[in-house]
Amino acid sequence: MVNPIPKGLLFVVWMVVALVSGCAPVYAPITESGSTPPPEATPPSPETERSPPVAVPDDDDRRITPSEPVQVAPGGAVRRLLEEAWRYNKAGDYDRSNAVAERALRINHTEPEVYLVMASNYFAMTRLSLAEQLARQGLPLAGRNPAVKADLQSLLARINALK
Amino acid sequence: MARRRKKSSKRVTRVRSGRRWLTGLLILLTLIAAVSLLVLDAMVYQKFSGKKWSLASHVYSRALELYPGQALARKDLQWELEKLGYQRVTAAKKPGQYSVAAERIELFSRGFEFWDGKEPAQLMRLSFAGQKIRALTDATGKPVDLARLEPMVMGGIYPAHKEDRELVKLSQLPPSLADALLAVEDQNFYDHYGVSFRGIARAMLANLKQGRVAQGGSTLTQQLVKNFYLSHERTLSRKLMEVVMAVMLEMHFSKDEILETYINEVYLGQSGARAVHGFGLASRHYFQQSITDLDVHQVALLVGMVKGASYYNPWRQPERAMARRNLVLGMMAEQGLLDAERARLAQQQPLDVMAQSDGGGRWQYPAYLELVKRQLRQDYKESDLQTEGLRIFTHFDPQVQRKLEQRMTSRIGNLESGYRIEQGKLQGAAVIVRVGAGEVVAVAGDRQAGYAGFNRALDARRQIGSTIKPAVYLSALSQPSRYTIASMIDDSELSVNLPNGDVWQPKNYARESHGPVPLYEALANSYNQATARLGMDVGVDRVAETVRQLGYQGSLPALPSLTLGAVAMSPLEVSQIYHTIAANGFYSPLRAINSVFTSVNVPLKRYPFEGEQRLDPKSMHLLHYALQVVLREGTGKTAYQRLPGELMLGGKTGTTNDQRDSWFAGFSGNYLSVVWLGRDDNGMMPLTGGTGALQLWTDIMTTLDNRSMVFNQPEGVSYYWVEPEAGLLSREGCAGARYLPFIDGSQPTRQSTCRPSAIDGVMDWLKDKFRW
After folding, report:
1. Which of B102, B105, B193, B674 is the Cys-Cys partner for B575 at CB 3.0 to 4.6 Å?
2. Quick check: helix, strand or coil at residue B721?
3. Which of residues 70-99 of B touch A (CB under 8 A)?
């Protein structure tokens, strides 16, 4: 009689294989049958302005999980635009500040500080409802950025006090 | 004798009377002439000193932002530079030029005045890695965080007479242009008073010598009078009038004012129905370049064309145009405006006109332009749009539009041949929106790119079928005390007695019933019977209210069939609804226009990002979950055969009765695309939402720089392992268990008896730890 392989050993072997293979399912683009034109762009690789990576749903347990708002410092382009938007905000040129902030929003719409600067502009323009909406949009994106989160919360408190 | 004297006296009286009459007549005529001249003078003065032209409004695309890490392939940037009329050279030395070497582009951008500030012209170097900009530096190698190219003119709104021009000032022109023009057309311009008798004599002599009209004696001022005030008929009276008015013009206005007006008035070509006037627009028309960037051989061509824009058309008559250009260059050299060597080199240059007269992007995007016009008409009168020369900046993205059009044409062709649909019968429309800001970036209103007829994206109102279902499920999920994402919905057959006596019996697409199914699964698989039952339980009015909250402004039938999309909408209207869904319940009106400037670049109006949170982020999170299941496991799952698995996407298929319409509406974190396919005669097709529109949607999404949808867990939502069929809390690894989001307090309370094995427990712990 052949001795069965101990379950513990199987588990360890499985773990090693899983770790070596990267623990993540591989999604290779499959060409659809027919005459689908080849995609023009290859799947994206990491970049400075990209949203943080999210958990990959596992085909086996079919788990779709929420993405974690991980704080990534704004890329150079967004940083530059944010500085410019704050500069116009401080100068009282709120329209121009919003125009600049919208450029940042197009580059990275998950950057919470963009919502903060726009909400601050609308607050200064006494458009409280829109300021509140924007601040509320930015809040869930602030994640682990305590400074922006605190500023958004403080702004919301000031809006509520005036309402 | 006395009689004779009497006769003589009578004659004298008659002669005197005749003279008096003649004098009176002369005085009267002189007075009439004087008044006429005064009136004419006033007219000449008034037209010239007032607004000279009705100016077409020009519509611009978005400006391309350049920054390290941006998803932009080298060939895509090159395409855009070509569209903007940049000249490919070996080394970029002045604005409007670029060079390419392997995976690097060096470009000298043109400056541009934007709403938020001036973008200076600058020399920059870009290196690429794959489909991205790897590095961006200035001429000294210093990193540049961000730069912008000028936007592309993608259309115009023209006056009834279809004259178009781009006004330029004398100070903006290359110095050689005015000199060359005067050298060829009027060498004594600065010496005469509107009429040059020397010029007339010279022309007469030349014409006599040649025995035909070979030379005109008109000064530049006379030519301007003819073009600006008079008709082109060749009569003596018109010629006299031209002389008089030329003198009047010279009395009132400076030479430079007259020359500048001439440069903006002169006719220099035709583009379809649109007449190209002035050197500013002609420069764009023939060279796709700003007048300030022209080289001397290009200037000479334009100057040469003044004599006959059609006769010397460089596309139709290149040899004739070349000879004329070289003649102008020779005259410039003769008059010392150009040294002989430079003139010789310029004469050796090719014509350098752009490949074809497509005017860059000017007339290629009628579907998007129509959307811009409709949004403009909410704020401006049509007459102002046609005459005030407004500069309209939009969110139109020519790169996205190009990819959309390519995919639309090829996919529809493939579907027709693959499903044996009669060639040319299948039509399509699509709208692409930037998520969050609500900016419409591309519109296709027909399968054929650039088609200017019926715009299906805006005007084809078709039944939306199952595309409406998210509104039904959202209405239910907004009542957590009644429905959760795990609620079991009955998908058995149903009959509904309608007030008019009819019986409504909706069926599933596959004509099968599935019994009780979890709510998310009913949406993912687009079960009609479960959805109809759910919609009626929630209330048709409530579903209609949700559709309105999502942004639909039309009327909705208060009938049970509304729950299955028995309402006609355009792709643009569906885009508005799905944008609110993609933006997590934040409604913002879809915008095509960014800002409007006057003709002299004064900001007139900005169309900022606006909106309001209309739907609860908690119930939106549950809906986002279910819409992801559609693409992972449901009717949209073929999308992931060609899209990367790590990309989180949400969407919904739509198929109407007898497969007359095929819809797909879906979104990533940054792009929403809505696609409709169908026949104009509303005929049947062998396509569903999944086999038709979804395939085109996937084609489009593979070309875009997509980011995962924002799927952050809001406060008040928690995830649990549950067994939906049993309605129990469960554990990972238990049969039928699924990890689902619940609005706090709505999760099941009873625990399943299932206990995972010890090894499963370890695996759970490891999975949680490492997020497998």
Report:
1. B674
2. strand
3. 70-71, 73
List the single residue in A with minimal CA-CA distance to B722. A63
As a whole number of angstroms, the distance between CA B359 and CA B616 comes to 47
At residue A44, the pLDDT reads 29
Sign of CA dihedral B226, B230, B234, B239: negative
**ipTM, interface predicted TM-score of the complex:** 0.81
Backbone angles phi and psi of B736, in degrees to 5: 75, 5
Helix pair angle (B255-265, B236-252), 10° resolution? 130
User: Under an 8 A CB cutoff, do B707 and A65 touch?
Assistant: no
Beta strand extents in B256-377 (DSSP E only): 267-271, 274-277
Residue B702 Cα to chain centre, angstroms: 22
Q: Which region holds residue B608: left if phi is over 0, alpha if psi is between -120 and 50, else beta? A: beta
Q: Are A127 and A92 in contact (CB under 8 A)?
A: no
pLDDT at A26 over 50: no
d(CA A136, CA A128): 12
CATH architecture entry for A76-162: Alpha Horseshoe (1.25)
Closest among B526, B540, B506, B723 to B634, alpha carbons compared: B526
pLDDT at B62 over 50: yes
Instruction: Please count the other Cβ atoms lying within 10 Å of the Cβ belonging to residue B99.
Output: 17
Give burial (CB, 10 Å; 0-12/13-18/19+) of B63: middle
If you count them, how many residues does chain A have? Answer: 163
State mean pLDDT over A22-43: 30
Q: Minimal CA–CA distance to B473: which of B411, B416, B517, B409?
A: B517
Residue B35 half-sphere exposure toward CB, CA atoms < 13 A: 5
**Of B180-189, B464-473, B635-644, B672-681, minimum mean pLDDT range:** B180-189
Cβ separation A77–B645 shorter than 8 A: no
Handedness of CA B711, B715, B717, B720 (dihedral sign): positive
- The token duo for A29 is 């683009």
What is the DSSP code (8-state) at residue B292? G
Any catalytic annotation for residue B65? no
pLDDT confidence of residue B2: 61
**Cα B80 from Cα B67, distance rounded (Å):** 16
> For residue A12, is pLDDT > 50?
no
List the single best residue of B62, B66, B67 to mutate versus A (max A Cβ within 10 A). B67
Bridge-based pairing of strands B488-490 and B516-518 is: antiparallel
Reference B649, options B741, B582, B570, B550; nearest CA is B582
Tell me the average pLDDT across B407-428: 95
> By C-alpha distance, which of B84, B156, B129 is closest to B399?
B84
Q: CA neighbours within 13 Å on the CB side: how many for B556?
A: 25
* Residue B759 confidence (pLDDT): 64
Largest CA distance in chain A: 86
Domain range list for chain A: 76-162
Active-site residue B283, yes or no? Answer: no
Nearest partner of B445 among B363, B371, B551, B392, judged by Cα: B371
> pLDDT value at position B770?
59
* B609, B623, B647, B704, best to mutate vs chain A, most A CBs in 10 Å: B609
B391-394 vs B57-60, strand pairing mode: parallel
pLDDT number for residue B761: 60
- Domains in chain B, ordered, with CATH? 58-152 (3.30.2060.10), 156-347 (1.10.3810.10), 408-703 (3.40.710.10), 717-770 (no CATH)
Look up residue B748 and give its two tokens. 């099941």
Q: Enter the pTM of the model.
A: 0.83
Distance CA B188, CA B193 (A): 10
Estimate the crossing angle of helix B278-287 against helix B296-305, to 10 degrees.
120
B609/A105 touch (CB, cutoff 8 Å), yes or no: yes
Residue B741: CB atoms within 10 Å: 27
Rounded mean pLDDT of B590-614? Answer: 91
